[in-house]
Specification:
There is one protein chain. With about 325 residues, this protein is α+β, with helices and mostly antiparallel strands. It has 2 domains: about 140 residues, PurM-like, N-terminal domain (60s Ribosomal Protein L30, Chain: A, 2-Layer Sandwich), CATH 3.30.1330; about 160 residues, PurM-like C-terminal domain (Phosphoribosyl-aminoimidazole Synthetase, Chain A, domain 2, Alpha-Beta Complex). About 30% of the residues lie in helices and about 25% in strands. The strands form 3 sheets. Strands 8-10-7-11-9-12-13 form a 7-stranded mixed β-sheet. Strand 4, helix 3 and strand 5 form a beta-alpha-beta unit. The protein binds adenosine-5'-diphosphate and magnesium ion.
Length: about 325
């Protein structure tokens, strides 16, 4: 899209060495890897063919400088994370990721930054076998918007409203790492910081979830809030087991206070693991690492927590919201 002011008065130009189109060609035009991508990059629109009999699953997430990340994140990690926060949404629907678009707003064409960002983004795109099929590039405050496209047979899409009493609540990996890293700041051990800066949603989990889970969500806002969305949509409740909440070795070794650990496990966001409700444990979300059962869906609405000593109390969802 052209700038609406009379060019070049206040639109500005990137610079003569690297204009908008050269920037896109240099950093964001990659050869497609998938047969579903019929046309990518360079035309007015991309052409994407979902596999026969499947529907498209589509999701968008924006990362804003100063709100979702700060200047301390490496550009490589930011590129990786921008895709991670989108892929987890598709995986939670049991959709196979196919492709994505990238809308990038940048204050300047900083080549060192672009190189790192594009490398991290591309590494994750290759790991996930998704094609970058188009986007938009503008000058402005730094903001990264990715839209992902996936495919799933409509009847097998995992929605939030499918949880039923008696099912187990399962998560795909340890909880609270990213939240603890955020709260520990510069004191955070590298392994925890990596979970915050470079989350790794389980890229192949979509396959095993089809036909084996009833409801799903990705853990972006925190366990209590995200599970709360599933419970409300499904018209059910749940009890979580404190002792069963999975903690990573780095989480346990970080030496945080009991209160901080509890807050991070129950309410911390940014893990981008998956949570599902299922009658029995679905096929493993990652090679060699199964789902972890953390609680049970019940008919009585509301969220409850069984403590280590067996007492059960209401758990009030608490998480970051923008407004
Ligand atoms: P238009 O003016 O028709 O919207 P643009 O000039 O915005 O087209 O973009 C030119 C082409 O480059 C389009 O095919 C678009 O999808 C692609 N593109 C623009 N920005 C990006 C980006 N950040 N990453 C990948 N492709 C991009
Ligand atoms: Mg455009």
């Amino acid at each position: 899209m052209a700038c609406w002011t009379a060019w070049p008065v206040s639109c500005g130009r990137w610079n003569t060495a690297l204009d908008e189109f050269a920037l896109i060609a240099r950093y964001f035009r990659w050869p497609p890897q998938r047969e579903q991508t019929r046309l990518a990059g360079g035309d007015d629109a991309a052409l994407l063919a979902p596999p026969p009999g499947q529907v498209l699953a589509i999701s968008t997430d924006t990362l804003l400088a100063g709100r979702h990340y700060d200047a301390s994140i490496r550009p490589e990690d930011l590129g990786w994370k921008a895709l991670a926060v989108n892929l987890s949404d598709l995986l939670a629907m049991a959709a196979e990721p196919l492709a994505f678009t990238l809308a990038l707003s940048l204050p300047e064409a900083d080549e060192a930054w672009l190189q790192g960002f594009a490398a991290g983004l591309r590494a994750h795109a290759q790991a996930a076998s998704v094609d970058l099929i188009g986007g938009d590039t503008t000058r402005g405050p730094q903001a990264i918007t990715i839209t992902v496209f996936g495919a799933v047979p409509a009847a097998q899409a995992l929605r939030r409203d499918g949880a039923r009493p008696g099912q187990g609540v399962y998560v795909s990996g340890p909880l609270g790492d990213a939240a603890l890293a955020l709260r520990l700041g510069a004191q955070a051990p590298a392994a925890l910081r990596r979970k915050l800066d470079r989350p790794e949603p389980p890229l192949r989990a979509w396959r095993g979830l089809r036909g084996h889970a009833a409801a799903g969500i990705d853990l972006s806002d925190g366990l209590s809030a995200d599970l709360g969305h599933v419970l409300r949509a499904s018209g059910v409740g749940a009890t979580l087991e404190w002792a069963a909440l999975p903690r990573s070795a780095a989480f346990a070794a970080a030496g945080a206070t009991a209160a901080l650990q509890r807050e991070s496990l129950l309410h911390g966001g940014d893990d981008y693991e998956l949570l599902v409700a299922a009658d029995a444990e679905p096929p493993a979300p990652r090679p060699g690492q199964g789902w972890m059962r953390i609680g049970r869906i019940e008919a009585e609405p509301g969220l409850r927590l069984r403590e280590q000593d067996g007492t059960v109390a209401d758990l009030t969802p608490a998480a970051w919201t923008h407004f």
